[in-house]
TrEMBL record:
<keyword id="KW-0812">Transmembrane</keyword>
<keyword id="KW-0677">Repeat</keyword>
<comment type="similarity">
    <text>Belongs to the mitochondrial carrier (TC 2.A.29) family.</text>
</comment>
<dbReference type="GO" id="GO:0015183">
    <property type="term" value="F:L-aspartate transmembrane transporter activity"/>
</dbReference>
<dbReference type="InterPro" id="IPR002067">
    <property type="entry name" value="MCP"/>
</dbReference>
<feature type="transmembrane region" description="Helical">
    <location>
        <begin position="12"/>
        <end position="31"/>
    </location>
</feature>
<dbReference type="InterPro" id="IPR051028">
    <property type="entry name" value="Mito_Solute_Carrier"/>
</dbReference>
<keyword id="KW-1133">Transmembrane helix</keyword>
<dbReference type="Pfam" id="PF00153">
    <property type="entry name" value="Mito_carr"/>
</dbReference>
<keyword id="KW-0813">Transport</keyword>
<feature type="repeat" description="Solcar">
    <location>
        <begin position="101"/>
        <end position="224"/>
    </location>
</feature>
<dbReference type="GO" id="GO:0005743">
    <property type="term" value="C:mitochondrial inner membrane"/>
</dbReference>
<dbReference type="InterPro" id="IPR023395">
    <property type="entry name" value="MCP_dom_sf"/>
</dbReference>
<protein>
    <recommendedName>
        <fullName>Mitochondrial glutamate carrier 1</fullName>
    </recommendedName>
</protein>
<keyword id="KW-0999">Mitochondrion inner membrane</keyword>
<keyword id="KW-0496">Mitochondrion</keyword>
<feature type="repeat" description="Solcar">
    <location>
        <begin position="233"/>
        <end position="322"/>
    </location>
</feature>
Length: 335
């Protein structure tokens, strides 16, 4: 089947709609993933996915489940548009005489898409993680206060002093809510634009392999639903193919996601390690928490990515963006 060509405005609309729907549906699980990944061995605030969800709901309320969602909803439209558009661009570029793409070229196209998207993904994840992890720090402080562990040897620190002021980090205080705009402003003022791109290498390490796995796997799974090469697969098959490919890729790169989350978490809890780069982070996690720590949040990540990319592919393959543009053009020129 010839590669489907879609205009850039349609891709923006498709990516935006799919991203907004997907993020709204699965964001509480994504928040749970971040908090579980940031937990070290010792005094853990959460024991499981459900325990984290229940405690977050009780202590922070319904809207606490969506802490950090605003920045995700704002940037998910360009992020998904860039990711999908870049993959389409590279797939089209690699096509020769209408021949189907080899698996190698499909992986290369996915690699290109992963590299392009980190321009938006890195600052989005950076801001989102600070918002999501604030509740975990508050819960940890309550636990430590209850068992009298706030001793001289117990540290409460923040990597960035400005963020320490915003979060009011201290041995006797709980984090106060701040906006993503405040965090972004403080980071830019103290570290410049590179402050928003902390963890860029780790983000590349996660997103490039993810795209290399996801796009070829989805394309081949989706082909199984086509009755003939000229026809599209049914929308439900595209949804299931997106879910299967997304969850598989998510679990495969989860160790990289754990490293990325740790590196991008600027505020630290009691006696939590600070890391100096990808190698240092991976080594300390391996030595102090064991290899199983690299799979923290893997279940949550699969639950987040599966429906998110399933929805993305349904919207993309149903041509929602194209339909909206056609309707707008019809209304514009209608008598």
């Amino acid at each position: 089947m010839a590669e489907k060509q879609i205009s850039l405005p349609a891709k923006l609309i498709n990516g935006g709609i799919a991203g907004i729907i997907g993020v709204t549906c699965v964001f509480p699980i994504d928040l749970t993933k971040t908090r579980l990944q940031n937990q070290r061995n010792g005094h853990q605030a959460y024991k499981s996915i459900m325990d984290c969800l229940v405690k977050t709901l009780r202590s922070e309320g319904y809207f606490g489940m969506y802490r950090g969602a605003a920045v995700n909803l704002t940037l998910v439209t360009p992020e998904k548009a860039v990711k999908l558009a870049a993959n389409d661009f590279f797939r089209h570029h690699f096509l020769q005489d209408g021949k189907p793409l080899t698996i190698y070229k499909e992986m290369l196209a996915g690699c290109g898409a992963g590299i392009c998207q980190v321009i938006i993904t890195t600052p989005m994840e950076m801001l989102k993680i600070q918002m999501q992890d604030a509740g975990r720090l508050a819960s940890q402080k309550k636990i430590l206060s209850g068992i009298h562990c706030s001793s001289p040897g117990t540290k409460h620190l923040a990597t960035i002093p400005a963020l320490s002021r915003l979060y009011n980090v201290g041995p006797t205080s709980l984090p106060k809510p701040v906006s993503a705009t405040q965090i972004a402003r403080e980071l830019v003022c103290t570290e410049g634009i590179r402050g928003l791109y902390k963890g860029l290498g780790a983000t590349l390490l996660r997103d490039v392999p993810f795209s290399i796995i996801y796009f070829p796997l989805f394309a081949n799974l989706n082909k199984l639903g086509q009755s003939c090469p000229e026809e599209r697969a049914p929308f439900y098959h595209s949804f299931l193919a997106g879910c299967a490919a997304g969850s598989t890729a998510a679990v495969c790169v989860n160790p990289c996601d754990v490293i990325k989350t740790r590196l991008q978490s600027l505020n630290k809890g009691a006696n939590e390690e600070t890391y100096h780069g990808i190698k240092d982070c991976a080594r300390k996690i391996w030595l102090k928490e064991g290899p199983s720590a690299f799979l923290k949040g893997a279940g949550c990540r699969a639950l987040v990515i599966a429906p998110l990319f399933g929805i993305v592919q349904v919207v993309y393959f149903l041509g929602v963006g194209e339909s909206i543009i056609e309707l707008a053009q019809y209304n514009r020129f209608a008598p």
